[in-house]
Amino acid sequence: MTFTVENVDWGKAKHKLSKLREKVFVYEWRIPRECEFDNRDSRAAHVLLLDESGHEVATGRITPDGEIGRIAVESNYRKPAVYQVLIDALLDIARAREIQQVSVQCELEGVEYYQQQGFRPVGAVYMDAGIPRQRMACALHSFTLPRVDLTH
């Protein structure tokens, strides 16, 4: 499957981004709406993934300080290839903005995965919307996301 990546501005694409994030985080994962949307959205760079029919299937953001987050993917598109396209697009933004270090806030089950990609834990485990999380960081030049077959 082929995807189109759009770099979008929060002000112009807020409706599309919010709709997708609400569907995934608020309705599916039961994250309180007030925890999902914050004042960092207006300053972050956002990407929107469209499938071959032009349907919005995923989104993510990167903040000016390099935090990758708010990655929302519709349930029937949650495959490694989709995440790779999304992360690659966010890393391209980081490179273009000369961000030296990227970070993520992951659930504890994801710590090992991110460590395999070159990330290291930063600080203590904390609670976010009732979910234990760990902040992980990686120098952008050290990022080693495994390559997956994008044709499936």
UniProtKB/TrEMBL annotation:
Listed EC numbers: 2.3.1.-
Organism superkingdom: Bacteria
SUPFAM superfamilies per UniProt: Acyl-CoA N-acyltransferases (Nat)
Protein name: GNAT family N-acetyltransferase
InterPro entries: Acyl_CoA_acyltransferase, GNAT_dom
Family annotation (Pfam families): Acetyltransf_10 (PF13673)
GO molecular function: acyltransferase activity
Enzyme class, broadest EC rank: transferase
Keyword ATP-binding assigned: no
This protein's UniProt keywords: Acyltransferase, Transferase
Ranges for domain N-acetyltransferase: 3-141
Coiled-coil ranges from the UniProt annotation: none
